[in-house]
Amino acid sequence: MPSAESEYGSALDFWTEDQPMTRRLHISPKPDMPAPKPLIAVDRAIAELRRGGQVLVKGDGALMLMLAAEAVADESLAGLKTQAGSEPALAITGRRAGVLGLAQSETGVFRLTAKDHFDTKTIAFLADPGARSFGPPDFTRLDLAPARPLDQACVALTKLARLLPTAVVADTDRVPTDAVMVEAAHIAAYQTTAARSLRQVSEARVPLENAENARIVAFRPSDGGIEHLAIVIGEPDPDQAVLARLHSECFTGDLLGSLRCDCGDQLRGAIAEIAQAGSGVLLYLAQEGRGIGLVNKLRAYQLQDEGFDTLDANLQLGFDDDERVYLPAAQMLRLLGIKRVRLLTNNPGKVDALARHQIEVAERVPHVFPSNDHNQDYLRTKATRGGHLF
């Protein structure tokens, strides 16, 4: 097999002194090491849930079959009951249970059972605030109880799949021959394991409108998951505190110029400010909608149109107000050789998150842009309820 040097060396011969690369690429066409089996198992389970299939979750000597509530159909619900040999229940977040008036506590996960059985219309109403055409179920026939550990794992898996955070679950002592099986402990560790397995897979010089001396570096976890990107501007000095921004991807704001948020302004403003400073890095993180995904963000927008603010809309869906994790950002900075940053942000939570992951924030640099008629309430909520500093 040819070496990475011989295979890729000729492809770099076109670079001249007028078009220097900041450093020569040494990227293997294959992963440095196989993906850990736990990552592969969770990744397969996510794919199965998204297409409406069953997943077998195991842990602490127990087994549970599950479906994602938003993908359940009459046939799959009947199949789950037959395969498990028990009546399905719902694993539902405390946030969603509180919205429905079923729980006083809005933290954690609960198990919801029906005195007779669940049908798909009832499941849809309980899981999805947009499924109101079905009408409310008879709440007197529902019982709420504390979640079991496997219930919590099932809800966590729906979140990883960027689906509504409600699972249809059934206890079982059977292992279907064709089951996609995953351990609860691997679900809980997935985001940490994936972040720690990030590696650089490509890099290119990409002159930008306000930063011609820029390159984009792509990082991918070893299970082949979604890439995070670093936009490196100029030549950051790793011995100094590097001007940096952590930017969560926003399809509507960044690409389409949506006026409902300030994301597009923050993205382009940060690139321009870093370029003006001479060097720095913007991390473009694959965590749309504060970590709930684009589809759920659009659901939240619909709820905002009905009068809920940006945080309460997430809670209506059953999510926490912010589902993001910042270990991938810290890992990317370390791979770039950066240990200290001056962070462009209005969110003190990002400062605290990087500190927890051993990246020193030497300074918080304010990053404020004018509001418009469409995002005034959004920004006000971020300030008054989210603790952002404007």
Structure explained in plain terms:
The protein is an alpha/beta fold. The protein has a 7-stranded mixed sheet with strand order 5-4-3-6-2-1-7, sandwiched between helices. Strands 8-9-10-12-11-13-14 form a 7-stranded mixed sheet, with helices on both faces. Helices cover 36% and strands 21% of the residues. The protein contains 15 helices and 14 strands. The N and C termini lie far apart (56 Å). The protein folds into 2 domains: 37-191, DHBP synthase, CATH 3.90.870.10; 198-287 and 324-384, 3-Layer(aba) Sandwich (Rossmann fold).
The total of helices stands at 15
What's the architecture of the largest domain in CATH terms? Alpha-Beta Complex
The count of β-strands is 14
The largest β sheet comes out as: 7 strands, mixed
- Approximately what portion of the residues adopt beta-strand conformation? 15-25%
Q: What is the CATH topology classification name of the largest domain?
A: DHBP synthase
Structure classification: alpha/beta
Range of helix content: 25-40%
Gyration radius, to the nearest Å?
23 Å
Low-pLDDT ranges: 1-30
Taken from the alpha-carbon principal axes, the silhouette is globular
Question: Assembly state here?
Answer: single chain
Tally of separate domains:
2
The first-level CATH class of the largest domain is given as Alpha Beta
What would the average pLDDT be, to the nearest integer?
Answer: 88
CATH superfamily of the largest domain: DHBP synthase
Q: Widest sheet: strand order?
A: 5-4-3-6-2-1-7
Give the SSE order as H and E letters: HHEEHEHEHEHEEHEEEEHHEHHHHEHEH
Give the terminus-to-terminus CA distance.
Answer: 56 Å
